[in-house]
Request: fold
Amino acid sequence: MKIKVNDKVKIIGGKDRGKDGKVIQVFPKEEKLVVEGMNIMKKHLRPNKKGEKGQVVELSAPVHLSNVLLICPKCDKPGRVGFKLDGDKKKRICKKCQEFID
Reply:
């Protein structure tokens, strides 16, 4: 997966289009990730004990990988990510400025 936790990404699809945020969680098998403060959904919780009130909790729902672009820390622009060998290590590279991301 080309995007990791703590990367800064820009949302390019969905209700939060145009906003950017930090990646909190990544789900490689489903090709989804959770961005801080984006794709907010409300979850209704039942009361557990007698006399306690139920509550509504706001959570960040996962976004599909195809709906985000990584913001390069070097050129500060959203763009695609590629891989390039640096010696014997495989590293991520920004397709716009050709700089190593890691």
